[in-house]
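Work Package 3 (structural annotation) set out to generate three-dimensional models for the target panel prioritized at the project kickoff. During this period the team completed the workflow that converts sequence records into discrete structure tokens, so that structures can be stored uniformly alongside our sequence database. As a representative example, we reproduce one entry of 492 residues exactly as it appears in the project archive.
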Amino acid sequence: MINKYLIILFLLIFGTSCMFLYTLEAQEELRDGGLRLSLVDVTKIALRNNIDIKIARFDTLIKEQDLDDSKSIFDTVLDSSIGYEVDSRKRASTLSGTKTTTTDFDLGLEKKLETGTTVGADFSVGRDTSDSAFAAVNPSYEPEVGFSIKQEFGRNFFGITDRGEVAITRLDIENVTEKSLDAIEDSIASAQKAYWEVALAKERRKIKEDMLKRAQDLLKANEGRFDMGSVEETDLLASKANAEQRKSDLLVAEDEAKSKVEELLLILNLEAGIPLTLKDDLDIEGSGRADLKLSMNNAIESRRDYKRSKNEIESNKIKIKMKRTDLWPQLDLEGTLAVNGLDEKYNDSLKDVTRDNYKYYIGINVSMPLENREARSAYEKAKLEKAKAIVSLQQVERKILTDIDKRVRAVNVALNVLEHQMLVEGYQSNKLDEEMQKYNRGRSDTDTLVRFQEHLLTAQLATAQAALGYKTAIIDLAATEDTLLQKAEGAR
């Protein structure tokens, strides 16, 4: 299975590079008066140009920013402050002096670890001066170095909640990525179908051009026979009406082909009016029947709704673990250690910072709501959400089975219809050829030939439509398997 992040990387990086090569080729071909595209070319252009695909890419990139947001709880925090204070207020005792000046500087670092442990270190310096005659050290510098640690043992037991939030965010990002890939694959399917719609329109135009030629040949033959008196005027009029009808049909077919080309260019976000020819046609040589077992395996391996459902279950498992610890008391073990120095000179005060001048603290903080209803409610809700997610996964599995079975049958039925229609076209072609030979021998008439031409035209158009139906069914099956993107990546 191709990793979804590799596919996203392919879309963002390879799509651009391959389109650079495509642009060079396109420019060369445009010099000859048109743009020639294969189905692979259309897929590459859609990956680069399609607006829906661009929006889907941004959805993924935007959601990925949530990961750093969830990890921010583990960021190292730098805290610093500096202050200056002058106190000349009146005092009840003259021992304190009449004026004191204090300068403080603090610098600290704090970081929370994935184990739920919060560690910190800080350094501070205070400078005090006073006009009191009783100040023992004046001015005085008091540097202090301190360390702290807090470990959560109850709620957020050893960081289970913090890590769980990050894990859930990862799963959410994965699900958004899968949805973005769904949108991208839908756009690819639309582009490929539009390509085959153009192929059908061009085939219909070709068929009607051929039928116009047949009608004109018949008209020419009847004009010669009419001059010789071997056919009636009604036969000549019938052949003229037939030729005019074929001209009208061709005009409609040409307009339809132009419309389909413009629709394809719109989907590909290319400039309107570019002359376009196709490298691929509706030929199905080498195509075969769909296999239900193979398609089911592909779907189970690739279906993104199935992956999202499994991710939802995994996310709820994590939530249950998180909510279970919320039932426990808030129990934190805290410890601090600080050492300081004191002297009239700053450098000497730093030398005085020794382990003999220490202060430490060890304590346990406990808190818990007595009823604890909010935590119990959240825990029960998480369990119910998990049960719901499991049922939803079963529903998705049944949907996959139904969808794949439907699409496989559609491919095989479309192929059967096409094979039968090709036989019908062959019979109609042979019938017209035989009737034309009879006409040349004077054993048939114009009305019969015109009617048989109409039969062949109908059969040819039906064959082309059946070929489109088969091509569309193949695309729908791949889209239902969620393998279109994998095939696009493999086609590079």
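The longest helix spans residues 160-228.
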